[in-house]
Amino acid sequence: MAIKRSESWSWMNDVMPFVAMLMITCFDMSVLTIVKAAMNDGMPSIVYIVYHDALGMLILLPFYIIGICRNDRRPPLSFHLLFRFFVLGLLGLCLYQVLAYEGVYYSSPTMASALQNLTPANTFLIAVAFRMEKIDIRSSSSLAKLSGTIIAISGAMLFTFYQGPEIFHKNLSPDSSNQLHLSRPSDWIFGGLILVAGGVVGAIWNVLQSATAREYSDQRTIVFFFCLFGTIQCIVLSPFLEPDLNAWVLQPGIGMIAVVFGAVFSVVFRSTAITWCLEKKGPVFVAMFSPLSIVIAVIMGVTFLGDSLHLGSAIGAVIVATGFYTVMWGQAKEKNMLPMAARDDLSTLDEPCSSDQTSPLILSKNESNCYNMAIKRSEAWSWMNDVMPFVAMLMITCSDMSALTIVKAAMNDGMASIVYVVYHDVLGMLILLPFYIIGICRNDRRPQLSFHLLFRFFILGLLGLCLNQVLANEGVYYSSPTMASALQNLAPANTFLIAVAFRMEKIDIRSSSSLAKLSGTIIAISGAMLFTFYQGPEIFHKNMSPDSSNQLHLSRPSDWIFGGLILIAGGVVGAIWNVLQSATAREFSDQRTIVFFFCLFGTIQCIVLSPFLEPDLNAWALQPGIGMIAVVYGAVFSVVFRSTAITWCLEKKGPVFVAMFSPLSIVIAVILGVTFLGDSLHLGSAIGAVIVATGFYTVMWGQAKEKNMLPMTTRVDLNTLDQQGSSDQTSPLILSKNESNR
């Protein structure tokens, strides 16, 4: 079933928009973090806004002028329209940015990213006030928008007025400017109120630009004039907000970096990429990345700004995101119930992309240029079939790396890796066992088992569940979760090489797909070697106490290399298992029986092997603490939640969709390692990770291209071999074979 769904997934139309939106979200929060650091360093917000807008306008101006000159069918302009553009520039580009950045100055990028998710709710309320929207309590879509608005506003109020106890705290020096702003509740509340006011201004602008877009069809002209008016208005307003001429002298440093980085990435790159993503996937796809910005802002704030994460902020952010998705669901449901013409009328009003915190008018109106085309493409995007699989895969990736980080902390605290493996497998097996037994008993058409098949299951359990986990966790112990997450992206390359060695795959140098897989394999292995044998200078360093166990492991190059070699060996074992389980799946069609027996054999093998790897009985006494947390968290999230969610995602979207999230785990592992384990980020590791990810995507592209060239029956045969769910570093057989059930 997954194969049929994955047919519609092409590299340029599906994978690249996903990668582009991830990059946009990361760049948005990076810009906001750098701007916050620049303002903490003394740069006034209006100075940044003026320089940022002027530089961005200068970069984009030639393209706008060329586009306007080439459009011979442009409707004539009137004074009324120019005045409308003037008001739009005042509201969206001038006032919105002033309020947004002033709010960030008094609060944090985390609050800004959370409260920007109020945009659909604010727009809905303003549209109701302007009688452009009606509330029908008998309509599920109207009730969803109303309840989502109430939920989002409640979360925003909680986020603003209640911080609560600290969940995570990073010690700062007493004179730290970040600590100064975050330690004043009055400033925090004031900043939140400013951000809420900015959101209301943005919502009013959203409604007005909707009416303007219906009245004047040439979007490029609208963009040009209100960007021009907005930039001029910022310049005119600037002497009143910052009369000190010395503040306008831009010195080399964080301020100049913020201006250039913001202009290039927030304006040029973002506007181009968002427009392209809207054209390819539609507004629902673009909008669903918005709550992800909260997570990225929290991590960047904690890591680089020294922010503290509070309970009230975390709960408020979750509530706001819930309200955001509820309103978005109501909008999507309402559009699906309307005829096409009515949807075109609502398109600009409902546009979710206008919530950017940096230059909403430049971005959103340029984005809405593609809206009519995007509406048609977005029809294929439904909540359960597209949005929820995306959210589920993000949760899986985060929970995987969280589990690996917790396991690393437990091993640094003295827990032996085999102890974790045994307890983790036994607990996970006990949880899943009843479901497997029920499924096996209900399957009356199950093929007959033979001694040969049972021996095959035994070998699969030995390779995948026992040896792979022992090698993976031992490799993490000597290196880091970052290296494990990077080297797990070798799985397609290793599987390709093993398949060639077993003569299950042929290399045809005349075939672009075969060349892609071969070159991707070489690239990925080269990146893995660089990651393992060359750390290079530190890019980011977190000071730790001399007796820190994390520092101990990371300061020994021999341990780092040894851990990397163990992880590579584990990857080779996993690739051999991948080929063998492919052959087994063709020979024995009942996947649930395969899962049950090799999980059973693998768990028993781990138990039998454990006394030889850890003979000390005291090490097996599991005390309350990080070790017990690691076992329970790993069993619940890495086994139960992950296997269920991956299976569902494979059924909904296919293996290509599931596989493309794998390189994202490297970024999450780096951030978690730096934040919670005190890891240092090295240049060699960063370059190696990028090279490995490039090789991974190259091999995946070759596999996808090859499948599209084959008949349907052959694709089904190749499905299990190419499935990338098997690259998990914790319990590949439990997860992957359950996943391949689909």
UniProtKB/TrEMBL annotation:
InterPro entries: EamA_dom, EmrE-like, WAT1-related. Residues 20-159, 191-328, 402-531, 563-700 form the EamA domain. The keyword Membrane applies. One of its GO terms (cellular component) is membrane. Pfam families: EamA (PF00892). Keywords: Membrane, Transmembrane, Transmembrane helix. Residues 721-742 are annotated as: Disordered. GO terms for molecular function: transmembrane transporter activity. Residues 721-733 have a biased composition (Polar residues). It is a multi-pass membrane protein. It is found in: Membrane. Belongs to the drug/metabolite transporter (DMT) superfamily. Plant drug/metabolite exporter (P-DME) (TC 2.A.7.4) family. This is EamA domain-containing protein.
